[in-house]
Input
Amino acid sequence: MLKHNIKLFFRNINRNLSSFLINIIGLSTGLACALFIALWVSDELGVDKFHENHDRIYQVAENLQFSDGIQTMVESSAPMAEYLVAQMPEVEYAAATIDPSWFGKHALSVGDHNLKAQGQLVGKDYFNIFSYNLIEGDENQVIADPNSIVISKGLALKLFGTTENVVGRSIEYEKSRQFQVSGIFEDVPANSTVQFDFVLSDKAYKDEAPWNSINTDHWGSTGPQVYLTVKEGTNIDALKVKVAKIRNEINENDLRKSILIPFSEHYLHGTYKNGKQIGGRIEYVELFSMIAILILIIACINFMNLSTARASKRLKEIGVKKAVGAKRKTFLFQFLSESVLMSIMALFVALVTVALLLPHFNTIIGKQLALQFDLNLVLLTLGITFVTSLLAGSYPAIYLSGFNAVTVLKGKLNRSIGELWTRKGLVVVQFALSIILIISVIVVYNQIKFAQNQNLGYNKDNIVYFKAEGKVKEQLPTFLAELKKLPGIKNASSTTHSMIGHNWSTSLEWEGMDPDNETNFQIVGVDYDFIETMDMEIVAGRGFNRAFGDSIGMIFNETAIKAMGLEDPIGTIVAGRIPIVGVVKDFHFKSLHDKVEPLFMAIMPEVNKVMVRIEAGKERDAIKEIHGIYQAFNPGFPFEYEFLDDNYKALYASEQRVATLSKYFAGMAILISCLGLFGLAMFTSERRKKEISVRKVLGQTVTQVTVMLSNEFAKLVLVAILIALPIAYLLANNWLSGFAYHIPLQAWYFLGAGLAALLVAMLTVGSQAIQAANRNPVDGLREE
Amino acid sequence: MLLQLNNIFKWVNSGGQRIFLLKDINLNVEEGEFISIMGPSGSGKSTLLNVIGMLDGFDEGEYHFLHESVHSLKEKHRANLYKEYIGFVFQSYHLLDELTVKENLEMPLLYKKFKGSERKAMVADMLDRFNIVGKKDLFPAQLSGGQQQLVGIARALISSPKLILADEPTGNLNSKQGEEIMELFKQLNDEGVTIIQVTHSEKNAEYGSRIINLLDGRMV
Output
């Protein structure tokens, strides 16, 4: 029986090549989209899960009460780690770290070989908590000595050309200090959120700010990350309650309350509001899983519609088989096995497509995914295919097997109203989904364009920046003065932060302050000329000026002045001794997701980022010049610089990826929908052949017939538009509300998407309609 | 007694009116009979045949087939009954275009519990008997109308039914092919198969042992 069904399936393909191709293209496109998304989703879900004990690793975060709610900071204090191990029997290991994003890149040298590598400072049990497997060295010993360095396999190969006998050799650090290699770990996998090339002991900088903040017993300190593993079988809820009490027991004035967050879930669930975890990247994971399901549904609808529309071609088969005694079950089996076969064929096409397009997909999502068939992926793939075939095959199977033998043998098929409605309903659903996807893409794209062209309150273009270190840091004023003399350099200054992603804040007191005012101020430490270099605008008072001896003096932004309630801020004394010298126009120093917060700038000696404004169009020469002078100050230091506008773009990297991906997926959805529409139009004109002939014989023109046939589908797409618009509006509104600064929703986004869908649909149907209208009516009437 | 129809009525309701397709049909068919049903277009010949073949239901009356009361049987049992005892021959042959001659013959056996080897033997036997061994791998479209109907009859016979129902079996054939088909029916009838055919042709009706005339759903 199965053999018989398979044989019939393949012979039917031969007879109905066009509908077979429509089905296979539609299904395989849908499956390919779903596979891509499945690969991405399973990778996202796997981030940080490679640690052997990932379900027992937690991180300490602090909830801090402000007047406008609780703020969660994913960092803690250095003594927390020791305290946890000593006082909480449930805790197996704990370690504080200065994580790579804070510690940054540092110059390492072996002989004449210099490079910059990402490092971090970690407590002694770091390698016991995390599974960064050591090839050389012992987990308990590698960071015991403050002068030891543990390096990755990749770094060892770069510095020494080998991993053999590297342990014990020394590496020169920042051209100033020697570290001995005590161990080598396997390169950090790509799906780790913490990326680093080397590790130093928490004791390496016992006395040097700010790195000593990992090595202090001061509970008020902030900055370090604290990680821990709990023992197996620990009641985590009970432990959380105990941890929440720690700070108050030590210092009853401490405003912070410690919480435990599961380390491996932080990547996907990293957004906190009012002390509660509310989302994060998981939203994108869910969004794309949703898109995958929608696209598969659209593809399945094609299959259902074409199979039922094509039913007339199979009436005889069903009738004859029923007459010789085939039961309904037999047909259910037959049609389902057809859709299973179809899905399997589509799966093969999809797999080939995925394999070919994977590099491109990787570029878009910024990952290195590979088509590796582990058990999970195989099961997932087969699962998707099986569900698809059931979804696609069930309706046709039920529909086709329900025919009455006599009526179908007479060649008549009473198409019920319900059936026509079902088919039309399916087309409407398909197009509504496609239109929603198109509108989403337009909105996301425009918001990102808006973010990138938004007037930020400073000019982000042509700014190059790099870290001040070594002699550059020691002799910063001289270095800056030398820089400004170079051709192609407009201005130069330095700052504590690079304008992007900023989190250093404090509360302040000022003359005439309302005692209830709990405003939290962001701090930006700067050097002279910073405001000028960044092209910021002073709206009151003046900028910092050496001539005035402004080494004490503060400049606030407009929001801060408003929050402080100052009418005439210039000259107001802050913190008991510092005068406000100027007010700067608000500028964005975080992503546009966040509102501009109160901020002040002050001249600070420990600024370490050099910002240089270059003349437009002279980037290459200017950087060469900067490099030259940098080398003169810091011989042997690798010179690494970044462009501010590039990094600004990176702020929206995830949105950018969503935009690019959804552009492709929306394209796919509309393609699949149109394929379905094309097939349906083909069969409609076939089914109405006689009617068309009669109309033409009675004098209707080709144009009239074409319009009549196209209209049937235009109506469906219009209904789809009406359904899609409000849904898309709600979705877009919801997404945009995540941005403190966003575009208004404009009517043309919606009308444009609707018209585009209508146009594409009409082009698809129109070709079929014209062909049908142009046929010789005699052919249509002869057949009976 | 092979089958017995008692006071069979079949109707449809159209525009508030009841239109009778079959009206008070009483018919006894003995095994070995060869009956021709005649009548003008729309007189209910095909409907009667479909009722006898259990492909179509009726609204009133009793139908006994080999001592089974068809009118009180469930769909499933009815299907089992006609599957076992009845073979159908259609005017337009209704061979499946996607299947070869051999596969068309085999198709009905797929719905009964026969082993692959048994099916092969039965098909080979049938090909032999109808002298179409040479055509076994051809598709219906490659055969003449007469040859297609031959295959159609062979398909109806393959599961050795007691009764063959033929709805204008020669309607699409030229007179020579038609004659051959009728000779074949005659021969089958001589071998003991009961045949009921619907026909327009007096000449074809002559092959039968009894003629039933229908007019407006009524036996006359």
Remarks:
- Chain A has a mean pLDDT of 85.
- The interface with chain B takes residues 1, 4, 7-8, 11-12, 15, 316-317, 319-327, 330, 405-406, 409 of chain A (CB under 8 Å).
